[in-house]
Amino acid sequence: MKLTYLSLDVELDFSANSITTLVIENRKLFRSLACEFIKATKGEDTQWTLSESNKLLDIKKDCYIISDFFDLDVNNKTLLTKLNQRLTSIATEDVGLLFEINQKIQELFMALEGSLSLDVTYNKLITAQDIVKLGNFMICDDEFDDIGKVISFIEVVVDLIRPKLLVMLNLRKFMTNSELELFFETILCKKIPVFCIEGSDAEEISVVQELEVLYTLDKDLCVF
Question: Tens digits of per-residue pLDDT, 139-175?
Fold first, then answer.
């Protein structure tokens, strides 16, 4: 899988066996490229392109970006929507049970209608989606330390969204070097390509040996 930024000499290769990190030394450029990538994940046209085997991929569909490690909500709208879709698909397969539930609910509705002197209308069919919504399913947000919370959040994202590329902004501002190494080892077990974008000077970055491939976009806009 390959990620490019069209107007700059930026072309990055990804593997599920290592973390790919791009260090952008120019802070203004970092802000610009990071903002553009966030826009791309929302479906907007930008100069970021993602491809696999010479075929363009949809960044909105195939990438998930984490930009704020202090506000990770496993029950955000995107993840809950995916959870409900998964549960609805499972529930739909049990046709017999859905039929029985509908029979009982319709009996109740008819009894309620008959108790009124008013003319009312109601749903004559309760779908699997309706039943799942009634369950108000939520993902358990267990108590973890800061690093454990990030890992738990990523596990939920991988399970429900299954992105081809997981993107993280300024991860090194959140973790120490020792935490980072343990975090990388854990994430690589998930076998999903990870892309870290860091706004920093290259000399401040300590590479996690054997786990990370580092690219630097220096202040002269050269990649090495």
Answer: 998 777 888 899 999 999 999 999 999 999 999 999 9
Q: How far does CA 48 lie from the centroid of its chain? A: 18
- Give the position of tokens 């989606």: 129
Residue type, 11: E
Rounded Cα distance between 194 and 53, Å, is 18
**Dist. CA 12–CA 71, nearest whole Å:** 28
Contacts of 124 (CB under 8 A, 6+ apart): 106
CA distances from 113 to 119, 120, 121, 124, 190 (A): 8, 7, 8, 12, 53
Give the Cα-Cα-Cα angle 47, 42, 187 (nearest 5 degrees).
Answer: 90
Q: What is the bridge-based pairing of β-strands 48-52 and 2-5? A: antiparallel
With residues binned 3-state (H G I as helix, E B as strand, rest as coil), the percentages for the chain, rounded to 5, are: 45, 20, 35
Residue count of the chain, please give it.
224
**Which alpha helices (H) appear in the chain, and where do they start and end?**
27-41, 59-62, 77-92, 95-114, 128-135, 146-160, 177-188
User: Residue 6 is which amino acid?
Assistant: L
Distance from C-alpha of 188 to C-alpha of 203, rounded to nearest angstrom: 25
Tens-digit pLDDT profile for residues 48-69 = 999 999 899 999 999 999 999 9
d(CA 128, CA 102): 10
Mean pLDDT within 79-95: 95
The CA-to-CA distance between both ends of the chain, in Å, stands at 19
Beta strands in 47-145 (DSSP E): 48-52, 55-57, 63-66
- Provide the whole-model pTM: 0.84
